[in-house]
Amino acid sequence: MNKLFTAALLLVACLPLSAQKKSVVPPKKALTADAFAIWKEIPYKAISPDGNVAAFTINPQDGDGKVVFYHLKTNAQDSVRRAAEINLTADSKYAVFKIKPPLLQVKEMRRQKKKKEDLPKDSLGIYSFASRKTEKIAEVRSYKIPEKAGGWIAYQLEAKKDVKPKPEEKKPEEKPKTLPDTLKKKEVKPKPAKKNNDTNGYTLKLKRLADGKEVSFGFVKDYTLAKYGQGLLLTTSGNDSTMKAGVYWYDLKEEKLTTLLEGKSKQKFKNLSINEDGTQIAFVADLDTTKAPLRYPKLYYWKTSEPKAAILADETSASLPARWIVSEHSTPYFSKDGTKLYLGVNPQPVVQDTTLLPEEIVSVEIWSARDSVLYTQQNKQLDATRKQAFAGVIHLQNKKLVVLANKDIPTVAVADEGNANVALATSDINYRWSDFYDPSGFNDAYVLDLSNGARQQVISKVKGNPNLSAKGKYAYWFNLEDTTWYCYSVATQKTVALTKSLKTSFADEENDTPDYSSAYGVLGWTANDAALLVYDRYDIWSLDPEAKIAPVNVTKIGRQQKLIFRYIRLDPEERFIDPSKELLLSVFNEDSKQSGYYKLSLKDNKLTKLLMSDHRYAVTTKARNADKLIFTRENFREFPDVWTSDVNFTASTTKKLSDANPQMKQYKWGTVEIVEWVSLDNVPLKGLLYKPDNFDPSKKYPMIVYYYEKNSDGIHTYVAPEPLRSSVNRSMYVSNDYIIFVPDIVYRIGYPGQSAYNCIMPGVTKLLSLGFVDEKNVGLQGHSWGGYQTAYLVTRTNFFKAAEAGAVVSNMVSAYGGIRWETGLSRMFQYEHSQSRLGATLWEKPLLYVENSPIFFADKIETPLLLLHNDADGHVPWYQGIEMYMALRRLNKPAWMLNYNGEPHWPVKRENRIDFQIRMGQFFDHYLKGAPMPEWMRKGIPAVEKGINKGYSTK
């Protein structure tokens, strides 16, 4: 052995240096849970308005990250650690952001039970693009910059900590002098200094970035900057000397402070609003300093030409219905042209009798079968209902208030950024009773005259959601019942069908639920409401709202070439489509799964191909004032790093900016490909097959089948090594020599479980025939709807060696009458119209509910089953998991159930997600690879050891 070892060393020494270097390259590692800590993500991406600097964060999944500023002209890069809440100024000169304290430091101090006020605070960072230097300001609570102007920043400081005086040396005690009581002076305690806190407000600094000049305001409760940087609007509780409590306007150009309303410290001033040009201001004030339960907020208004703000609307306004008030929960806003002020109003709320003791209050819920909304929904919506405001408008020229909405017609949408004199009101109030089983619902729609509130009904009981065109000339909607686009002319009061005569479908052609097919959607309106642009499955269509011109397919080739075109809105403030400009379209090839970008000219409907590849492209953001953009591209083997290009994706301008995960080269990964087969229902299907990097077709691999509905279009999705909350991590499993199969599933109404079986089993059989899948070691994994399908499959076949099912519906009979506690919704709609796809009530087809319920066939299960169902699941009641667990326990089947206390539909807390991935990995490794059974499976973890002993040990 020693001679062989010595000979081997001599042989290496004789090799050329290049060969020696090549021979010592370490082998690639398999991904484990340890990789979670080192894998990065890029949650923030932006480009400066002038297109010269890209900014993006590179953050670990749990820990301190950084923001990178990439100067595109010079390729220079700077970074600042722990940056968050990043904004780039409109003048392209600065980036402003919070700097978080080190996470480890915060955790350590929390372990030491430090008080919240003693924990380290955020700082403010101001990075100059010109100097490439960062100014830091300590202990900043919040900051704001003008949306469309540079030069200024306003920020609030944290409260200063109280510093306890050092103990002084004690002087020798002197014998007190005695005086007659009449000559003794009464000791007067000094008034305690006012402190910065949530009640009093905090110090606000206004900083001019060019020269650093600052203005300070004390005890500020709320503040906002005008859109174009004309001024700063703030409210303060006052400092009793130089500034009284009230609302103030600081003109940034004149550097002048104006008092808009002076009040008292206990009065509330909120909901600040500034118009587009900074000449008008509105806010809401509650001037009552008592604790009366019924409040009477007042809407104040100020123009720069006026000395003070004045009441514009309150409970005494003649135009308000009796016992209505201005809403304190709605922020008023101006129309873009400044001629109108929109506000919220509401009836006086019902208030509790404050003289009653707690034991004197009757607390009972009365559930009526004729309640328009389920009581459980009412409970979930209680806060929103109490704060509900109804739209009103004030015409500022004559100060006329018009109430636009009420309890019967609650929803109002304005047009032309509030400039139009019409609005659209919609209501589903008359049809809400049936929402608990029919989610598509009905709507009534009305055109409102903003000058007097007069209503003209557009449509009644339509299965659709009417909207208003950009300029307000038309109301339009997609009718789910006849799958047709309609348009109503405000001027002529006539309705026309826009697509009824076309053979092309504008509704989901692949819908396999027992409900109406939804529309593919709207691109938008062209200038002056000339045309409505809508999507079919593939193409973009231009529709004449008057139906005088025949519909035009502007992309033409989509359906023919199976290309799905969709518009990318590069300007987030775009209100209509400019037909003189070229549109950037995303494109996806339904057959090849390639994606990329095309360019469309609406002048001549010319399509130009810009880019197409085996990637997924996303998050395209354009510089506001330059033809530069940033985007991401990814596939299974490529992390979605940040790229830049011009708007034509010219090769010479396209380059990669980030490299967030260079360590990926050290790990074994995998490949993905499309596989095809035919279901037992004779439907052609596709699926994704993930193989290990070192795949050997002569070997036999264990395989896990994961599914939900359709996944094959996601072939180019990167799967980071991270603790996923509900599914196997495809990258990690193939790195550990598993094969992962993800089949598409289509459904027959009434037979969702059988449909899953009919799609999945022939797909598995197809793969077995290729010879590289170990037919004795195939597992199943699914969550929620996938968890249900897993539970169903193991009642139909004992082929699978092991299965994990999360948040299962095990009993459709009991689940049908259950509640989705996250929303308070009844579960009935899911079975009659939605994902569960039974298409009938329990009383119409009771056998379907039984036949599709795994619980009734649990005695057939031989597959070891790992269940996950959390006790705070708001989507699938966790008693469904309990029913399945108890059935398996009673039948003495191999089963385990994980319940992460307080977690919802899936584990959210990172440590819980890591734990779930480790346990699921151990479960499959044991059954599919023959690894030793861990302690938690072998013996269980008793309640007294919960949170102490994880039971991962396999010894």
Descriptive account of the structure:
- This protein is an alpha+beta fold and 955 residues long.
- Among the domains are: 404-614, Methanol Dehydrogenase, Chain A (8 Propeller); 667-945, Rossmann fold (3-Layer(aba) Sandwich), CATH 3.40.50.1820.
- The chain has 15 helices and 55 strands.
- The strands form 12 sheets. It has an 8-stranded mixed beta sheet, sandwiched between helices. Strands 10-11-12-13-14-15-16 form a 7-stranded antiparallel beta sheet, with no helix packed on it.
- Helix 8 (752-769) crosses helix 9.
- The longest helix is centred in the C-terminal third of the chain and has 20 residues, at 910-929.
- The relative contact order is 0.06.
**Which architecture of the domain at 667-945 per CATH?**
3-Layer(aba) Sandwich
Query: What is the 3D shape?
Result: globular
Rg to the nearest angstrom? 33 Å
| SS summary, helix count | 15
Helicity level, as a percent range?
10-25%
Give me the side-by-side strand order of the main sheet.
46-47-49-48-50-51-54-55
Number of strands: 55
Average pLDDT, rounded to a whole number, is: 94
Beta-strand percentage?
25-35%
**CATH topology type of the domain at 667-945:** Rossmann fold
Q: Mind telling me the CATH superfamily name of the domain at 667-945?
A: Alpha/Beta hydrolase fold, catalytic domain
Termini separation:
32 Å
Structural class: alpha+beta
